[in-house]
Amino acid sequence: MAPKQVLIGVATTVQPKERIVKGRRVKRPALHYCRMAEYAGSLGARLMIFDPDDANWSSGHILGWRPVNMSYPYRGWERCEERLPDAIYENVFVHLAVKGKSSKMRAAARERGIPVFNPPLPSKWQAVSFMKSAGLGQYVPDTFVLRDVKRAVRAIDEWKVTYVKPVGGYGGSGVIRIETTGKQLYRVSVDRSAKGTRRQRILVTRSELERLLRSRSRVPHLVQKGIRLLKIDGRSVDFRVVTARGADGKWFVIGVVPKVAAADGVVTNIVAGGELMSLEQLESLASRQGITIPVRDLSACALRCSEKLSERIPKAGLLGYDMGVDTNGNIWMIEVNPKPARSLLSDDMKRLMAKHTAGFTVYLARKRSLKLKRSDVKMTAASWS
């Protein structure tokens, strides 16, 4: 009997739309999923996308979309019912995942031994603690949880530039930069609040600062030492370094993407006023100012962090790091993101991400199949003994 063909599922709320392909009107999902289907097919696997709410775990089926012909995934897709996949790539939008959109699916898949790629990572504070315990502390700025307001103010006085950020935040929302002025006043800067983009620059007294920090401490926040980042034309630069695991389970660098803050910007996030720039553009600008961008060091650091993190979380396979380079050339890991935005990547990087995410999901599926076969062999042997 021929072995059952591997089926991988992509959990997403993004649905196919009508498009014109080669003069014909067809329904097809976003290009990323077509590319994933193509790469899965090259590995002898099939791919299906589905909404987490369209999985019927009791009957063992999912309702979703697959290419009408796996050999032509850029053409039409059809809605159909399939068996449960052998592995799942969870690609639900961050804001929906935070609200628990995929929680039920994760729990049900875990009960059935179906690996889910792209697992939730620890909180920002747990990630910092892990990096230190894994021997990577040299890449992490001094950081602690905001509990004691007096301690926080002492750190702000010592560090001169400090960032206070929500543990569960994303997109630069709610990040505060606090700078000492030497005049018993503190400069507080915000680019984006929880209610949307709202740039704010104010001076506060020590007692006003304590009151601000006390209000923030009601929700988990981190206090982090500010890094004197490289500046190009007076604007701070950091880097999104994306890594992914492929069909052999090994880590690869998808790309290094510079992000440039607005003048006096707190964060480099595009939604908060930052600017995306190609590495070639940045290197050209930097060379005019006698600055060298340590691209190899950034990539090596990201790979090392990913390899260590996946020792703790084996199904981690796609990670985006916000990394900085200080004025002395030291590399810093500012934040880790388990769902790096594809919108920051070039088309070549997007193709590479599709290839590796499909490949790693197939890798997990095949590992599961091998494990089930070994289990069956053991049970058969036991029944004969």
UniProtKB/TrEMBL annotation:
Identification of the protein by name: YheC/YheD family protein
Protein keywords: ATP-binding, Nucleotide-binding
ATP-grasp domain: residues covered: 130-371
SUPFAM superfamilies named among the record's database cross-references: Glutathione synthetase ATP-binding domain-like
Keyword Lipid biosynthesis belongs to the record: no
GO molecular function, one term: ATP binding
Keyword Lyase: no
Organism expressing this protein natively: Alicyclobacillus mengziensis
